[in-house]
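Example record

One chain of 835 residues, shown exactly as stored in the release files.
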Amino acid sequence: MSIRLGDPRASSVGLFRSETMSLVRLIIPAESVHETIINLGDLGLLQFNDLNADKSPFQRTYAHQIKRCGAMAQKLRFLKDQIERAGILSSSSSSTQKDLEFDELEVKLTELEAELSEVNSSSEKLLQSYNEFLEFELVLKKAGSYFSSSRSTKSAYQRFSGQDSTSTYQHELEEFSEFSRNTPTYESSLLLEQGLQMKTSKQTRLGFITGLIDKKKIESFQRILFRATRGNMFFKKAPIKEPMLDPRTNEMVEKVFFLLFFSGEQAKTKIIKICETYGASKYPCPEEFGQRAQMMNEISSRLAELKATIDAGNRHRDGLLSMVSYQVDQWSVMVRKQKAIYHILNMLNIDVTRRCLIAEGWCPVSAKVQIQDALDQAAADSNSQISTIFQVLRSKESPPTYFKTNKFTGAYQEIIDAYGIAKYQEANPTVFTIITFPFLFAIMFGDWGHGICLLAAVLWLILNERPYKKKKLGDIMAMAFAGRYVILLMAIFSIYTGLIYNEFFSKSFTFFGSSAYHCSDPSCSQSTKSGLIKTRSTPYWFGVDPVWHGSSTELPFLNSMKMKMSILFGVSHMNLGILLSYFNAKFFGNKLDIWYQFIPQAIFLNCLFGYLSLLIIVKWCTGARADLYHVIIYMFLSPTADLGENQLFRGQKYLQNSLLLAAAVAIPWMLLPKPLILRKKQHKKMHRSAHGVKESLDMESPDKDYTSHEVHEGLEFREILVYQIIHTIEFVLGAVSNTASYLRLWALSLAHSELSSVFYDKILVLALGYKNKAVTIIGVVVFVCATIGVLLCMETLSAFLHALRLHWVEFQGKFYAGDGYKFKPFSFSPISEED
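Predicted structure tokens for this chain:
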């Protein structure tokens, strides 16, 4: 059932309660459905319900269009990748061409992809040929240099034509011998033996192979060749100074030139297979100098032609990419929007006449006028003769939760949403968390020197907000940037509590006047409270008196103060949570929760721990020496015993007994009445149903069906009773454990103060005491690193997590259900921001 427009609760209630929502139905003419979805996406205030949840994605009407959008997105990613590889910067200048329609864009992208693919394929083939010719040219130069240095062209021709002289062959054996010095002994003997055999067969013809191989493979390649030919080969290598582009892998590789002599066709076959296995590039090298020179000229001319062709292809590709570089982002947004539109269209029902589509969804009541205007504008833009019909429906379904937030409150709302999305229109803890969260953090982190450092860091993030939004940040940096306004208040409150603690990197200052005490002993750091002489009746007017810092009673004094302060803040925080449970029960009209949950819980908590807070305040005001531990413990163990010196005021014993009795009565008050009353209501409802008495739907409250959520509806009495027993035990035990949990404020504050003191006294002071400048500089660097790493990073994270636990468990556990679901309207804003 929807909320009536005349309902006063239909107005926005701000951040404390979620926006009032309505379930609406849209009957959209087919000719204007596309424009309607576009306008609603631009507005971003309507959450569509899936009316085809029983269908798979492939069975839906617009599955083919979504597939088309996916293919177009893939082509756009291909274009972006090509633009990035070409090093072309996307221009933000406006296009002089007219905007393309969706179908025209699909054709355009298909043509661009085909043309670029063809250009890239041709360029790759040409580049591969160009690199092969470069290697071929290098091989010819290296081989020619080797042949020229070893013998004249004529003697080389004579050797390879089989007319080898004894002196030439002797020169070859000398080179074999020189190579064998770098080979194992056994292989060297084989090589010499083969050389002697070759000398006896004077007419044996030698062959050779030239090529290039990866430098990393050369040693293994040489050993395998030697073993495969049984030493019957001569291997010559020369490193290439600069890395070369490998034609096979298109990667820059350091290569080595090799020249391999062998004997026999069988050895040649083995060598070729080994070269193929190692990926060595083999190139033919003519035996005659004239032929090599002619081949070098042909290769040079061929390289020039390939270079010109490759440059022309690159210019054509770059020109093509430059023309579309300024439109790619726009096209990408357009495709993503179209895909989102088709996803929404798949959630709609198509009328049997196929003339209109039916949509249902949730929208804020305050946005109805804006939605109606968007629908009318869509009908006018599409020249539709029929406007979209906008209906408000009645529903028993719980609406989604929607809070209007900004960049300041949004971060705090995310902290609450991480625990659980608020139930529809229940009290939102964010309103109070904006103040209580940074304040509880500051109690644990109180040091105004560290607070200033934290403030400086977060102000840098806030002042550079726009540049950081455009950057892709790491996980930790992204979290810090998203919570910059949370950190801002954490830093401000840390400065405030640091001034109260009177701590600046563990040191105290007299900013607010002189101390109310003076030391009777010249050694003030060794004095006790009895050694301090009070010089005036008025105390140090803001924060902790600086005389306590450095005295022998500093730790007992600060321990006592911070522990009692933690209890006071903890009890106040829990009372706020219980009070919010009252406002929830009153808002939803649940009188049972008011009488049998809020009242007994408030009585139980305040009769025990509220009374403890009262004793702390009375002791502070009167300056009494009563032992509060003794008072609270014997309040349970011996209620009638005399308090003696622990009595703080007249009638304290009778007040304690009355409070203890009230706390004992509150337990069955929470436990029994609510299940019994619910059982009676169920029996009465069943009795009426049996006699055919039914309540009229029109007589019900217009928003009762989805705002008063009865947890126990439809349950048996035993289940209700067990649930209430668990809830009662949890609250009673939790009252004790939650109060003790707030002592973490004291513990972490003490730890932060002591760590800061240790770093200052044991690192900075000791380093400054040395006359050696190097030791002083090292000490200062260590102090700065320890302060940043431990106190500003680790301690900040620790205090943040403990404050988070106090809010999620101790505070929100008193009233916050967190079982709702978030309002997720259809909007184009995330698509544009992502781009």
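Notes: Residues 289-345 form the longest helix (57 residues).
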